[in-house]
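Fold it.
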Amino acid sequence: MPQLIKVHSQHQPSGRCTLYALYAEELSSSLGLARRVVHTDCRDTHGEGFPALLVKGVALQLSDGVILSPEDICAGLDLSAVPDLAARLEAIQERFFEEVE
C-alpha cells in the first residue's frame, strides 16, 4: 500500500478539490507522508475521480454526503501520534469557508 497522501482534483481546482488539497498539505506535513495531486476529468466523489482525498491508497469517506470534514478524516485515520492535528484541520476548514463566503 503506498505511503502517500493523494488528492484527485479537477483541473482548475475549485471548491472541494481546493479544500482537500489544503487538508492533504497538512496531513503530509504532520504524518511525514509524500503528497501528490492528480488532475482528472473523471468525476467520482470520494473514489477514483474528483474530488477525493486518499491516504495510503484508501479514499476517505464523508459522513454528511456533501463534503469531507476534519471529523471524517480523523475517523478514517489513527491520529494518536499527532494529537493536535484535528484542531489544525478544523482551522483549515474554517479559513476555507470564510474565504468562499
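The helical segments are 15-31, 70-76, 85-100.
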